[in-house]
Amino acid sequence: MHQFEVVVISTDDIRRDVFGVQFDPELEPAVWKLAYERLEAALQAEKVVCFDATNTTIERRKPLIERAKKYNAAVEAVVFLQDPAVLLKRNAERPPGKKVPEEVIWEKVQDMEIPSFQEGFDRILIYR
Length: 128
Description:
Elements: E1 6-10, H1 11-19, H2 28-44, E2 48-52, H3 58-70, E3 76-80, H4 84-92, H5 102-111, E4 123-127
Helix pairs in contact: 1-2, 4-5
């Protein structure tokens, strides 16, 4: 059995642990800068990376794929497609301070571009 270290880079964790917020639009450039720096460091060290973020658009995924390919890393998309009603119900059940504004959920649903191999993915997993 192969064992390897997986480095998880989560923009939500960076917001919370580094900046002490759930979300602040003014801090987003700094959040993503740090996330990309962590990604580059992990890829350079030849680690397996799980980049945990809601990247619903081709444009949002492109810099991640480019960085991975720069280090000859395989790129896998893991997509969770859910009915918006399920997303809203689950969000309503989240504890205070963890809820996502409904308009953000709808924005992500409307913006969703299903990943494709043409983007540079080596593997795409879709869960419904």
